[in-house]
Amino acid sequence: MTKETAQDLSDLVATKGAAAPPAGTQVRSAARKQKATEPNDAPLNFRVSADLKRRFRMFAAANDMKLNELLRKAFEEYEAKHGRG
Question: How far lies 22's CA from each of 19, 25, 26, 27, 35, in Å?
Fold first, then answer.
């Protein structure tokens, strides 16, 4: 019986945070920074009932709209009807 020598596998070991993305790949954190500086792209966070969330999403999907587009149009309609507060 012969003994095999162990192969050096140290290059295959991953170290968290040490991996580099392939060339030409945009890093997620850089994409978030770029996205935050674009106009008309500010986050708006609030809570609604589960039923309203479901109805809102279903209405947007049925009308082929994005959620933010539906919210913007609904607000513009409300503002036009009730005036600027």
Answer: 9, 6, 9, 10, 21
Which of 41, 48, 49 is CA-nearest to residue 68? Answer: 41
Greatest Cα pair distance, the chain, in angstroms, is 91
**Measuring CA to CA, which residue among 52, 84, 85, 50 is closest to residue 71?**
52
pLDDT in tens, 23-48: 777 776 655 655 555 667 889 999 99
Q: For the chain, give every domain's residue range.
A: 48-85
| 85, 75 Cβ separation under 8 angstroms | no
Q: What end-to-end distance do the CA atoms of the chain give, in Å?
A: 88
Specify whether the CB–CB gap between 60 and 73 falls below 8 A.
Answer: no
